[in-house]
Amino acid sequence: MSMRHKVGTIAGTMAVSLAFIPGTASAHSLSFNQKAAAYVKQFVGRVPYVYGGSSPRGFDCSGLTSYVYRHYGKSIPRTADAQFRRFHRESEGRAWGGDLVFFHVNSNPNSYVTHVGVYEGGHHMVAATHPGGGIRWQTIYSRNVTFGTITH
After folding, report:
1. What is the DSSP string of the chain?
2. What is the structure's pLDDT at 16?
3. Rounded to an integer, what distance in angstroms lies between the CA atom of residue 77 and that of residue 84?
4. Is there a contact between 92 and 123 (Cβ–Cβ < 8 Å)?
5. What pTM was estimated for this model as a whole?
């Protein structure tokens, strides 16, 4: 049985905290979303942005998200727009850490997606930003976004 919750809830904080105390919950009790949200953070400030990159030598935005999801056995399309088309939409209020944040060219939620990041909760995400910027934890900086999930 896996625990499902929104990142930042009391239960989630306890589950993540307990995972590191001997004799309590283990990493196996963490949900896919919790694992993805935690795993992507290891690349922050350590991996450069590389256009078309899809490995820890360098990522672009969709290369990062597809790599993180594949690490936990979820195969998703390679481009941001294709990922958006595959995912189920969620409101920000229903999104969990580990879901994806899709950036659209305009306010139409069906418009082309130009960027994607891993949602961390609290209006934050981890994303491959731009050359020179690398992988960053950042505030979601646009209103032209949708949230997507393949897990709930």
Report:
1. ------TTSHHHHHHHHHTTSTTS--GGGS-HHHHHHHHGGGGTTTS-B-TT-EETTEE-HHHHHHHHHHHTT----SSHHHHHHHSEEE-GGG--TTSEEEEESSS-TTSPEEEEEEEEETTEEEEE-STTT-EEEEE---SSEEEEES--
2. 44
3. 9
4. yes
5. 0.82
Contacts 24+ apart (CB under 8 A), 89-95: 89/146, 89/147, 89/148, 90/147, 90/148, 90/149, 90/152, 91/147, 92/123, 92/147, 94/147, 95/6, 95/119, 95/121, 95/147, 95/149
Q: What are phi and psi of 130, to 5 degrees?
A: -165, 165
Residues in the chain: 152
User: pLDDT (tens digit, 9 = 90+) per residue, 11-64?
Assistant: 443 344 444 444 444 446 899 999 999 999 999 999 999 999 999 999 999 999
∠ at Cα 49 (43, 50), nearest 5°?
125
CB 139 within 8 A of CB 123: yes
Tokens 């997507």, located at residue: 148
